[in-house]
Amino acid sequence: MAQQTDSAGSGSEAFGQRFGVAFVGSGSAKLETVLTNEQLAKVVDTSDEWIATRTGIRQRHIANPGDSIRSLGGEAAANAIAQANLTPTDVDLIILATSTPDDLFGSACQIQHEIGASRAIAFDITAACSGFVFALVTASQFIRTGAYKTVVVVGADLLSRLTDWSDRRTCVLFGDGAGAIVLQRSESSDNLLSFEMHSDGTLNDCLNASYQHESTPLTENVTVQKGSFNPVTMNGREVYRFAVNRVPEVLEKSLFHANLTVDDIDWLILHQANQRILDAVAKRLKISSDRVVSNMAEHGNTDAASIPIALDEWVRSGKIKTGDVLALSGFGAGLSWGAAILKWGK
Ligand code: UT7
């Protein structure tokens, strides 16, 4: 059953809360290889004009054969830790949001090893394009209860691994990437101002990369499943409709819980799925386009990595400053969607 109640997702209650959360660093990985729309038009029946006008995407980055969630997620995490003026051994917990792990048992431990965060425990979260927001909220709970002081949240996905390169309806959308942020305990303030998360499994068929199994008899009474994961399939129109309805709603609820209005938002950072979705959400919220972060033209849709990459680019270019109020919203497979309102910096 869909969970649509306020109480399920709201972050406004301070029950059990002992400490505040500060957002102290961001980082991302640099992927050199670019796949342009023109190049894709040689692979499938599409055009730069169609992709750009329908999505805003002009190119996407594709991981090199030697790259992995471990290497790219590790690079993003290390950059975020350095920006926070910390060292990897300061980190207590690493949460990796990914749908394309190097290891189905989880890749967070590999990132822990990659960056030398020897004290950190590490685990993965899978919530597709909502994964980064869900992981950020999860990380904040560990800080608020006093369990951990320093947490790195990584959003990393190599959707090129799950893309059907003969399906023009999906292959033009996706790219690879990794981003990360560092959260720390604060004794003076709580900069996670509110959050709201939702899931609706009744719409799972609209967007998935499902496991396809064949039943294989093992003994006379035991049959096992053998198979592999299908590439991404999506009902684009349904997901589009879902996004333009649910995203403004979840942001409005989050603002309400934070006792803020749209005018208080310095930067709106949505999952970079489609420029038309960003524009529609901004219009509905009546927020001017110069406060809407978009790097879609360069990166396409990088799943759980899209929000932290955009955030890091805006932080490093000096546009996002300490004290700025950021409204983040992720949405996608599950279907799932969520928002977090936060104040950047200590
Ligand atoms: O990250 C998770 C969240 N994901 C999203 O939020 C994605 C949401 N959906 C979308 O962004 C859009 O639905 C798409 C970008 C995926 C598709 O745009 P659309 O405006 O909804 O196009 P459509 O699927 O309605 O297709 C329109 C036409 C169709 O042709 P006909 O049937 O009208 O003749 C498609 O076959 O465009 C055709 N088409 C293409 N043509 C050239 C579909 N893909 C392509 C393509 N190149 N790549």
Q: How far apart lie the N and C ends?
A: 39 Å
Give me the CATH superfamily of the largest domain.
Thiolase/Chalcone synthase
CATH class of the largest domain: Alpha Beta
Overall SS class: alpha+beta
Report what the structure shows.
It is globular and about 60 Å long. α5 (108-115) links the parallel β4 (93-97) and β5. Strands 1-7-6-4-5 form a 5-stranded mixed β-sheet, sandwiched between helices. It has helices spanning 6-9, 37-40, 48-55, 69-83, 108-115, 131-144, 168-171, 236-257, 275-285, 296-299, 306-316, and strands at residues 20-28, 34-36, 59-61, 93-97, 121-125, 150-158, 176-186, 192-199, 207-208, 211-217, 223-229, 233-234, 267-270, 325-332, 336-343. Helices cover 30% and strands 26% of the residues. The protein is built from 11 helices and 15 strands. It is of the alpha+beta class. The structure holds oxa(dethia)-CoA (UT7). Oxa(dethia)-CoA is lined by residues 46, 50-51, 54-55, 129, 168-169, 172, 236-237, 239-240, 243, 273-274, 277, 301, 332.
Question: What is the secondary structure topology, with strand pairs?
Answer:
Elements: H1 6-9, E1 20-28, E2 34-36, H2 37-40, H3 48-55, E3 59-61, H4 69-83, E4 93-97, H5 108-115, E5 121-125, H6 131-144, E6 150-158, H7 168-171, E7 176-186, E8 192-199, E9 207-208, E10 211-217, E11 223-229, E12 233-234, H8 236-257, E13 267-270, H9 275-285, H10 296-299, H11 306-316, E14 325-332, E15 336-343
Parallel strand pairs: 4-5, 4-6, 13-14
Antiparallel strand pairs: 1-7, 2-3, 6-7, 8-15, 9-12, 10-11, 14-15
This protein binds oxa(dethia)-CoA (UT7).
The site of oxa(dethia)-CoA (UT7) has 19 residues, from helix 3, helix 7 and helix 8.
Keywords: Acyltransferase, Cytoplasm, Fatty acid biosynthesis, Fatty acid metabolism, Lipid biosynthesis, Lipid metabolism, Multifunctional enzyme, Transferase
Domain Beta-ketoacyl-[acyl-carrier-protein] synthase III C-terminal: 257-344
Pfam family, one: ACP_syn_III_C
